């Protein structure tokens, strides 16, 4: 019998199948025995295990009950959610785990409002656009919005982190959705800047070559005061923990803060755009 080799590093779907095979074989079960326990056809379970068919939330929860993995770090439901977040770049789910417990966040974005500052309407337009392009499935679009809402909620806690945000001017000038969506988003930015634990700055176009980053960058200070960096391109994300590299990125972030508009000037610009003025 041919045995398909699985590389769990190749995709969340492959990781799900590899974990399923690992636990099934540890129990000494055939695919038929496992299929009987979760009341699915053995052909269906074979397809899930080899990555030819996507698992469902219902199946994932049944597998967790059968293998006793509910609520664990390596639960099937968690792996299912990683599959549904398959449009997320490599390294990003791991980054989000750090983000939820960071004491300071420093964010820089180009082109679109940073996710943590997006309104539901703005986020929905972006997700719906990706669905129309065929980049993600409709259910992935809905999962992307849910995932973003969870990230935002994680930062509203008893002792919220300090959040520094620098947005390239393109973020607030690029029209996303209709006028009402954009107006609500700009109003949200103004309200965000008024919070006691936030600093919001716009890096104007006219700083030219003094803009230190050409890609989005997130820098997190963790409770032990260590700093990690997450940067991404169109197709790849990278989480960096090396001391020297992260310190260099932090220095460049501070240099960009010095070149960007003050929070007062940034908010004034956002308010003008909200009113339709150039």
Provide key terms for this protein:
Endonuclease, Chain A, 6-stranded mixed β-sheet, 12% strand, 434 Repressor (Amino-terminal Domain), 278 residues, alpha/beta, 2 domains
Describe, in plain words, how this protein is organized in 3D.
It is built from 12 helices and 6 strands. It has helices spanning 12-27, 31-38, 42-49, 57-67, 76-84, 92-99, 120-133, 138-154, 169-173, 179-193, 243-259, 263-274, and strands spanning 104-109, 162-168, 198-203, 217-221, 227-232, 237-240. The chain folds into 2 domains: 12-84, 434 Repressor (Amino-terminal Domain), CATH 1.10.260; 92-118 and 153-274, Endonuclease Chain A (Endonuclease, Chain A, 2-Layer Sandwich). The longest helix is centred in the middle third of the chain and has 17 residues, at 138-154. Helix content is 50%, strand content 12%. It is of the alpha/beta class and 278 residues long. Helix 1 (12-27) runs antiparallel to helix 5 and helix 4 (57-67) packs antiparallel against helix 5 (76-84). Strands 3-2-1-4-5-6 form a 6-stranded mixed beta sheet, with helices on both faces. It is elongated, with a radius of gyration of 22 Å. The model has no long low-confidence stretch (mean pLDDT 89).
């Amino acid at each position: 019998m041919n045995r398909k080799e699985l590389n769990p590093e190749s995709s969340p779907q492959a990781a799900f199948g590899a974990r399923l095979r690992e636990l099934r074989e540890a129990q000494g079960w055939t695919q038929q025995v496992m299929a009987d326990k979760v009341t699915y056809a053995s052909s269906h379970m074979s397809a899930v295990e080899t990555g030819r068919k996507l698992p469902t939330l219902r199946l994932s929860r049944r597998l967790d009950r059968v293998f006793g993995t509910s609520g664990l770090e390596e639960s099937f439901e968690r792996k299912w959610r990683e599959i549904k977040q398959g449009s997320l770049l490599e390294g990003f789910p791991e980054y989000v785990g750090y983000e939820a417990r960071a004491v300071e966040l420093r964010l820089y974005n180009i082109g679109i409002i940073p996710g943590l500052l997006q309104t539901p309407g703005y986020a929905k337009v972006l997700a719906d656009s990706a669905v129309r392009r065929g980049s993600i499935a409709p259910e992935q679009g809905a999962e992307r919005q849910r995932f973003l809402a969870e990230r935002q909620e994680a930062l509203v806690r008893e002792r919220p982190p300090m959040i520094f945000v620098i947005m390239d001017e393109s973020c607030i000038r690029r029209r996303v959705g209709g006028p009402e969506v954009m107006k609500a988003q700009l109003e949200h930015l103004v309200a965000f800047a008024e919070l006691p634990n936030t600093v919001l700055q716009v890096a104007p176009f006219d700083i030219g070559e003094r803009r230190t980053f050409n890609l989005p960058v997130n820098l997190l200070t963790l409770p032990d005061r260590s700093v990690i960096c997450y940067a991404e391109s169109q197709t790849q994300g990278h989480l960096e923990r090396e001391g020297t590299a992260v310190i260099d990125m932090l220095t460049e972030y501070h240099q960009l803060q010095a070149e960007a508009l003050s929070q007062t000037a940034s908010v004034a610009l956002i308010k003008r755009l909200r009113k339709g003025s150039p």
